Amino acid sequence: MNRTHQLAKLALALIGIYFIVLAVPTPITYIMVIISGGAADSANILQIFIGTLIYLGYMYLLYFLLIRKRACFAEKIVPEADQSEPGSPSQWIPLVYRLTCISVGIYLSALVITNITSIINNWILHRQIPDGVYSAPNSYSSIFLIPLAAYLLAGAPHFVRWQTRKTLEFCKTQEQ
């Protein structure tokens, strides 16, 4: 295991901890609403319970993938061709781009999960998609974000290769 692999493992753990910390207040808020009596009827309690389960599942998935299994995930981020020790700072560029894409993918997946969960809950309870934050255009954007989030979570290989090539070309022109 070299420094790039160790950096990938560390970055994945930090990203996982960051997004888990961001996700923790939501289930706590849901549980506090139930305890305080804010959910007056069983439909609201069911909605809060479903939302809490989805968030807890998301937090467990983040914990499992980014903290417990970060070594396996880091091996996928740093391919075997890149396992040699980097000689120059420019060899770190693909790793940094991949980690950035994965971070943005995690953020987009959290956004999509939040929007789709709210849309489904409102549809179950009211048989309609309400106006406002969860309106039809916003739900369509969530649906279109699903493949983008999946691509970014996969490390965006085509984008990383293209951007790395462009960055190295730019660096060479700046040196001359």
TrEMBL record:
The species this protein belongs to is Anaerohalosphaera lusitana
Q: Which UniProt keywords apply?
A: Membrane, Transmembrane, Transmembrane helix
Record-given protein name: Uncharacterized protein
Q: What residue ranges are annotated as transmembrane? A: 12-39, 45-66, 95-120, 140-160
